[in-house]
Amino acid sequence: MKSNLDDPPAIEAHELTKIYGRDNTEVVALRGVSVRVARGEVVALLGPSGAGKSTLLTAIGLINPPTTGRIAIGGVAVLNGPRPLVDLRAFRRRHLGFVFQKANLIPFLSARRNVQIALEINDVPARAARQRALELLDYLGVADRADHLPDELSGGQQQRVAVARALANQPSLILADEPTAALDSHRGRQVMELFRKVAHERGAGVLVVTHDHRSLDLFDRTLEMEDGRLHEPVRATSSSVPGQNPP
Amino acid sequence: MTLAAHDIRHNLGRFALTAVGIGLLLMIVLGMSGIYRGMIDDALVVVDGIGADLWVVQRDTRGPFAEISRVPMNLEERVRAVPGVAGARSFVSHSIQREHRGEPQRITVQGLAWPDDKGEWLPLAAGRPLAQAHFEIIADESLGLTVGEVVPLGKDRYTVVGTTKGMVSSGGDGLAFFTVRDAQAVQFDLPGEAIRLERAARRARSGDSELGRLSPLLLDRAAQSAAGIPAIGPAMISAVLVKVAPGHDIARVAASIANWPDVSLHTAAGQRDLLLRGMIDKARRQLGLFRALLVVISTIIMALIIYTLTLDKVHDIALLKLMGARNGMIAGLILQQALLLGAIGYVIAYALGGWVFPRFPRRVLIAPADLWALAGVVVAISCVASLLGIWKAMRVEPNKVLS
Ligand SMILES: Nc1ncnc2c1ncn2[C@@H]1O[C@H](COP(=O)(O)OP(=O)(O)O)[C@@H](O)[C@H]1O
Ligand SMILES: [Mg+2]
Q1: Is B387 inside any structural domain?
Q2: Whole-prediction pTM value?
Q3: Are A115 and A165 in contact (CB under 8 A)?
């Protein structure tokens, strides 16, 4: 599925600020950040450590609400400052997929069940969920490890299971925070290619925090953060979808 | 398999150990009710088994199971003369403590009204009922006696001809059934010297009185056996058991005996009631309190272990919330673990109890009603125990995944 300019954007965040702590321990992590990511677009978010990338990603991911600013996802206004406008948990369940630097698999569930549970949370019947989980693991090349517990998998295998889990419910928005930090460059690139494929084939918006400059060619657009502010894009990359940065 | 079961498999050692602990506690809870039921059953076994409609006892006493009751032996004949009475039997009951193979042994001596009552109604485990008027006993197995054994009591030697199982007094002492005469012989056994002293004392008392001085023959009499002195009644019995003839109203018969000024009358149901309320009630309250405490302790232990299992899962719970899991699913995970813990504890309690209880010194009687009640209690404590863990889980923020 190709995105349409008339479609509501996957992400539309307006003037986000985030202040951690208060009084003399106050840290300003976001200083008025506006982002727009279209459907079917893969966007990289770069920047030095402490720039506020994770803060931005988790704010958009509806698990770390901003102090001020508005967030709409898929055209639905979901947050106005810290105030939820929809049931955030139900919204995450249906529309969001997360991948983090750590795989964060549930340690007492097999690889397959770790994927399956994401589907079952969305009320997919167990049989269908099992089938779909196996397909996803196969797709990510870890089908042979389906019945192993997470600590029996290598870091790379765990991360691919986590990606399978993030994709399970066909989310309209995928948020990934340094997903390839634990992978070798080959595997890392494979994961990025997968995000690109999901975005372009299914029309999902993808926002990836990364330090891996060798894979930047796979992104439609690159954003850069520094000290809680978003910079102009440093370079345009492959362009299946035109960039739609706010001014 | 559910999420809860997967987690338990992952923490099997800790979970199994807790389940065993809970199981042991629940076993004691079950045992307590079993001991109580056993006490009731033991207490009623004689009242129910002996098959009397009415108990005639000493005036204003509650009968031989509650306190000492003494009525004259000829009361039996008086009762037999009442219209509607099919039979009257003497009953004797008292406790003695002797040594048996070097161990103290408490025996509750019961007298059976030979020849009407030979103990045929007793549930014999071995041997036979009484076959002669003297020197035979039927003893409960709990006394450690076997058929053929000879027990010296007082000046006589008694042969065990039969044994019963589970016939104990409300105090837990084994019953031994004698004929009434033998039971009295055991009860009123006095050493020869005591008898000689008593006769000398009688003679001295009579000698002091005018009557004794006027009739010297009386002094001779006083120095002889008590049975030969009309002024001294024969040995006393504990009660007279009345069987009402078929077709006669028990209440009518009871009313005519109840008018006698020297005795009191209890129906079999009344005697049961006195036993249960008088003797068992305190024990019941004591055991009940103890059980309640154990249930509370089990709940606390269970709540703590469920809570620590939940703390271990805080990261996973945050992840589930991040993925959008509903609260019901997360609470269900914790509740299922608590219920599973309770269920396994219950099974352990049941299985272990089946092995341990028969080895208890007193009878432990497990009724199906108690098993059901315990199952209900287990479900209840599992639910209560999971509350702390659920409370913790509900407060976990999804962004805990990142830390
Ligand atoms: N939970 C928090 N409490 C207080 N300060 C925080 C918290 N999370 C992040 N920060 C601060 O906010 C700033 C941005 O952090 P972060 O978004 O993690 O940056 P990045 O992901 O770009 O490295 C940093 O100065 C960091 O110390
Ligand atoms: Mg970060």
Answers
A1: yes
A2: 0.77
A3: yes
Is residue A124 domain-resident?
A: no
What are the start-end ranges of the H helices in B259-367? 268-274, 281-312, 314-322, 327-356
Residue B321 located in a structural domain: yes
Ligand 1 site residues (CB inside 6 A) read A 20-21, 27, 29, 47, 49-55
Evaluated on CA atoms B152, B156, B159, B163, the torsion sign reads negative
Beta bridge partners of A72: A12, A77
CB contact under 8 A, A63 and B315: no
Mean pLDDT in residue range B196-208: 81
> Between A9 and B214, where is the model more confident?
A9
What's the number of domains chain B is made of? Answer: 1
What pLDDT is attached to residue A240?
45
Average pLDDT of chain A to the nearest whole number: 88
Q: How far apart are alpha carbons B251 and A99 in whole angstroms?
A: 87
A127: closest CA of chain B, how far (Å): 13
Which amino acid residue places its CA nearest to atom 16 of ligand 1? A52
- A246 pLDDT higher than 60: no
Q: How many residues does chain B have?
A: 403
Ligand 1: centre distance to CA A31 (Å): 13
Specify the pLDDT at position A235: 53
The reply to whether A100 touches chain B by the CB within 8 Å rule is yes
Q: Which atom of ligand 1 is nearest to the CA of A56?
A: 17
List chain B residues with CB under 8 Å of A64: 399
ipTM: 0.89
Is residue B78 in some structural domain?
no
Of A100, A117, A118, the CB nearest to B402: A100
Residue of chain B nearest A168, judged by CA positions:
B323
For the CA of A209, the closest atom of ligand 1 is 21
Greater confidence, B396 or B275?
A: B396
Task: Report how many domains make up chain A.
Answer: 1
Q: Is residue A141 part of a domain?
A: no
In which domain, by residue range, is B293 found? Answer: 3-42+281-402
The pLDDT of residue B227 is above 80: no
Query: Which contiguous run of DSSP H or E holds residue B212?
Result: helix B210-214
Q: Is A120 inside any structural domain?
A: no
- Residue-range definition of the domain harbouring residue A201: 11-107+149-236
pLDDT of residue B401: 87
Residue B386 lies in a domain: yes
Which tens digit of pLDDT belongs to each residue from A76-91? 999 999 999 999 999 9
The CATH number assigned to the domain holding A194 equals 3.40.50.300
Min Cα separation A92/chain B (Å): 5
The answer to the question of residue A66 being in a domain is yes
CA distance A175 to A163: 11
- Residue A117 to residue B330: CA distance in whole angstroms: 12
